[in-house]
Amino acid sequence: MFDYFYNGSIRKLVVGFGSLFDEIYIKRKLPDQEKLIKVPISYGPKEKFYRKIVELDEGGNRNAVENILPRMGFEITSMSYDGNRKLNSLNKSYVAKEANQTVSYSYNEIPYNFDFTLNIMTRNLDDGHQIVEQILPYFTPDFTITMNFTEIDRKVDVPVILNSVTATDDYEGDMNTRRLLTHTLSFTAKSYVFSKINTLGLIREIKLTFQELTGE
């Protein structure tokens, strides 16, 4: 029953979600000029980056800390089946391949909601506000991305819904302790997982048998 297959649909969704935020910059005002700094983004939990910053700070490597922040990290936090978007499971979609003269088909996609968390980590409040203000106007509260998941399921629209925005200020000790400001944005992507793709060959030959009908 459970033959191996892998469409990479979840991985492609993760890449598509992360690409929404890979062209975000902040502007730093220096005494003689203004400098644009690109904010890096990578997959991983907030705790991973927080631990790295703390270790560098405790080691006295302040310059390295300055180079790390600001930074964004995101991860999938949950997946849940969405029965409201379910289609007939027995319906099939087909695509013909002219190169090898075959036909591929798969059964209908299965709707799932994927919850993402985007963490924006900065050293000061203004950096965080600059980043958040470049994101919020596009989500009202959803923003639709178009994904190519499989050779059959191309140009699939996936709404990404912004659920909430929270801000925290993490620091311990005296007033000289380095601060880590975090804005956490919660999203839900209404996407799909896809079944195994099967291949059919073309019908090249048919055999017909005719029988003469005699009336009695």
What radius of gyration results from the CA coordinates?
26 Å
Structural class call reads alpha+beta
Distance between the termini: 52 Å
List the total number of helices.
4
Strand order of the largest sheet: 3-4-7-10-9-8
Output the CATH class name of the domain at 12-83 and 115-188.
Answer: Alpha Beta
Average pLDDT, rounded to a whole number, is 85
Strand content: 35-45%
Which outline best applies? elongated
What is the fourth-level CATH superfamily of the domain at 12-83 and 115-188? Myoviridae tail sheath stabiliser
The CATH architecture of the domain at 12-83 and 115-188 can be given as 2-Layer Sandwich
Total beta strand runs: 11
> Which ranges are low-confidence, i.e. pLDDT below 50, for 5 or more consecutive residues?
none
Specify the biggest β-sheet: 6 strands, mixed
Any idea of the CATH topology of the domain at 12-83 and 115-188? STM4215-like
| Residue share in helix | 10-25%
The sequence of SSEs as H and E is: HEEEHHEEEEHEEEE
Summarize the structure.
The protein is of the alpha+beta class. The chain has a domain at 12-83 and 115-188: STM4215-like (2-Layer Sandwich).
